[in-house]
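Form 12-C: Joint structure prediction
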Amino acid sequence: AAKAERRGSCKGFEARLDEAVQEKNKLEKDFRQAILGGQLEVHYQPIVNLDTGAVECYEALARWRHPQRGYIAPDIFVPLAEEMGLIDQVGRFVLQSACREATSWPEEVKLSVNVSPLQFRNGNLLSTVINALSATGLRAERLELEITEAVLMEKGPRPAAIIRNLRAFGIGISLDDFGTGYSSLSYLLSYPFTKIKIDKSFVLSLQNDTNSRAVIRAVIGLGRSLGLTVAAEGIEREMERDYLRSEGCAQGQGYLFGRAMPAHLLAEPGNSLAGKRRSAA
Ligand code: C2E
Ligand code: MG
Ligand code: MG
Ligand code: MG
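Section 2 - Result
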């Protein structure tokens, strides 16, 4: 009986596997449709100066508005786009949309855009970025690209050369999710970063984990002594903001200050750009 049962559950497993494969196929089909049908959107989350509370930057965060399933998070569809060979197309869309949007913000407010490690592979990233800037008229100094350590693990001299070229144009380079990868000190010294973003997992565990405090304090000290802007993500509580500020962290991002929202809501009363938007050119 035990044997039969095992076979039974095995069959159940295969059925479930089959279902998962079909589900994935459907998602891929839907995603192709999403790109063609304009279902991708870019939302914006404020990054504030922790001393003054002023918005200094907005991070562009991609969203997929699925016609039946509602918003699908980038943690789902960015890996999908990478697998399907569509990440360059998605990246171009996000850059173009976000750069265009940012031209209507006050000149001192910057834009940051996430870049997938795969966008470094085919060598088009530099021209994609330069095209987006020239098509929209956004000054290069107002753009920051967020990369993760995975980019730096790519073999060969390519990422280093691309990053140096981007910097030469005046574009900022942020090391995102800092502390979650290998966080090798040599990375920090070998690439011309302008900002470190402390990963939200450290901020989340600030309250009850003295190790997180130690890591945060060390990273802030390290970043500052290298002349980099230090930002922290995932700030949800005043206590977290206060601690980070007191340790000298320059910028903060998190639900305490605002969630990512569609561009047209940034200028709504009570939101960060209220009364400050420049008329579109
Ligand atoms: P990320 O770049 O580290 O972005 C921060 C993520 O933390 C965002 O999730 C944001 O909504 C979320 N977050 C912000 N404040 C808080 C908070 O106070 N608490 C919590 N729990 N979460 C907070 P989101 O928008 O789901 O994006 C997830 C990841 O997807 C991003 O992580 C980024 O790696 C990737 N991503 C988003 N847009 C793009 C894109 O256009 N291109 C690429 N390649 N990746 C993208
Ligand atoms: Mg980011
Ligand atoms: Mg991050
Ligand atoms: Mg992340």
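Section 3 - Comments
The CA atoms of residues 144 and 172 lie 4 Å apart. The chain is about 45% helix and 20% strand.
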